[in-house]
Write a structure and sequence with these properties.
By secondary structure, the chain is mainly alpha-helical. It has a two-stranded antiparallel sheet with strand order 1-2. Strands 3-4 form a two-stranded antiparallel ribbon.
Length: 417
């Protein structure tokens, strides 16, 4: 997984976390179904925003955008409701095309293992196949990946001809063009042509933000290795880079305000708030969080029901809704836990969960007793989540963080739109 958007589960309400995971798993499975198992390595956090945008604009029932996926080791061998359809396929095509470009850049720069001829030859074969596959999938939803590949080719030319002291925005232009086209096409798929222009602007600024943050994060390592870096090459200092990033975040918020969405919550959290957190992560927070008081321990949302419990008044034996994870190793709410596994089966499941990091990072069922357990990181508060109150929970109810955070007892969402 890679990308600048990295929402923590402590900052998302239960509904938004479920939706986020549905899009993440949907992207992964769309890559597998259309392009094979190897293509799943192209799964990334930023790419699934395409799927989120399509679904958020479409005024269709949730069931038409979801399907039940089989058990997966990364979900604790649970089934889950995941995103499907044209949004997931567009996200997969874009992610695969950009992954191909990234690998090709590593081969051209002879980075690490790509400096070895056998590895480079195999990587080139993979990029050629991924280029063909992504173009084929994109064509089924009316998108032309040529705009992405053309932007990648112009990127290299710009870097070779850029003179010291030139504008860093000349270097980010190809990335801006590519993301702008992908964002705008979500309006076409969703049947909202009026959203194309503001989404193109949001995509352009998102591309600029991604490029600048990547350059700022890698600047020290690039200097040590002698690799080309846009900030160093143009003489752009970190203060100016931060200003450009924060201006981009503000511009994304303004553009989103003009987009007509059927469900604004997750889009707003990801593009209006997680982008700002990404800037804070790279350059340092501009202001301290002010929401610890009155909200309990980190990670708790007092207005949010504990997970895996039947809502008040609901019959524990009632059918489990399709969005609740089910399957081997998982006990639905209100049901009796299954019999514990024997020693051999329990050891096998424990080994599988250990190899896939579930014991560390995920809520899971005990491999022996099958009872719900928290991951090691959650039990020991390893998550880098300094503030417990966040607009992820406010926006779940009203979709407008700028107004609903006013009632959060001091929660400062930093939203100036």
């Amino acid at each position: 997984m890679f990308g600048i958007i990295r929402p923590c589960r402590h900052r998302l309400s239960e509904r938004l976390q479920t939706s986020w995971m549905a899009h993440l798993c949907g992207l992964c499975l769309a890559l597998r179904d259309d392009h094979g198992q190897l293509a799943r390595t192209a799964t990334n956090y930023d790419g699934l925003i395409i799927s989120v945008l399509v679904e958020a604009q479409a005024a269709r029932a949730d069931s038409s955008w979801r399907r039940t996926a089989g058990p997966c080791p990364l979900r604790g061998m649970r089934t889950a409701s995941v995103a499907k359809g044209e949004g997931a396929r567009l996200a997969a095509a874009v992610s695969l095309a950009l992954a191909s470009v990234t690998i090709r850049d590593h081969v051209d720069d002879r980075d690490g293992v790509f400096a070895r001829r056998p590895v480079a030859a195999g990587a080139r074969a993979v990029t050629r196949r991924w280029d063909r596959q992504s173009a084929g999938t994109a064509s089924t939803v009316g998108f032309d990946t040529a705009v992405l590949l053309d932007a990648a080719s112009r990127q290299g030319e710009l870097e070779r001809t850029l003179r010291p002291g030139g504008s860093v925005l000349l270097v980010t232009e190809p990335t801006e063009t590519a993301t702008s086209a992908a964002f705008a096409h979500t309006a076409v798929i969703a049947g909202r042509p009026g959203n194309a222009a503001p989404l193109a602007e949001a995509g352009r600024l998102f591309g600029r933000l991604a490029h600048l943050l990547d350059a700022a994060e890698d600047q020290s390592a690039d200097a040590a290795s002698g690799a080309w870096n846009p900030l160093t090459a143009t003489g752009t200092d970190r203060a100016e880079a931060e200003r450009l990033c924060r201006d981009a975040v503000h511009g994304i918020r303004l553009a989103l305000g003009e987009v007509e969405l059927a469900d604004r919550a997750l889009v707003h959290v990801l593009l209006a708030h997680e982008t700002e957190r990404a800037v804070d992560r790279v350059f340092g927070a501009r202001h301290a969080a002010s929401c610890r008081t009155g909200h309990g321990a980190a990670g708790e949302h007092p207005h949010q029901a504990p997970p895996h419990q039947a809502p008040p008044g609901q019959d524990p034996g009632a059918p489990v809704p399709p969005w609740v994870p089910q399957g081997p190793g998982f006990t639905p709410p209100g049901r009796k836990p299954p019999h514990p596994r024997n020693l051999l089966a329990g050891c096998a499941v424990w080994a599988l969960m250990a190899c896939t990091c579930q014991l560390l990072c995920c809520e899971h069922n005990d491999p022996f007793s099958r009872e719900p357990r928290k991951g090691f990181c959650e039990r020991h508060d390893c998550c880098d989540c300094p503030d417990c109150c966040d607009c992820g929970s406010c926006c779940d109810g009203c979709g407008d963080c700028c107004s609903c955070c006013d009632g959060c007892d001091g929660c400062d969402c930093g939203c100036d739109c």
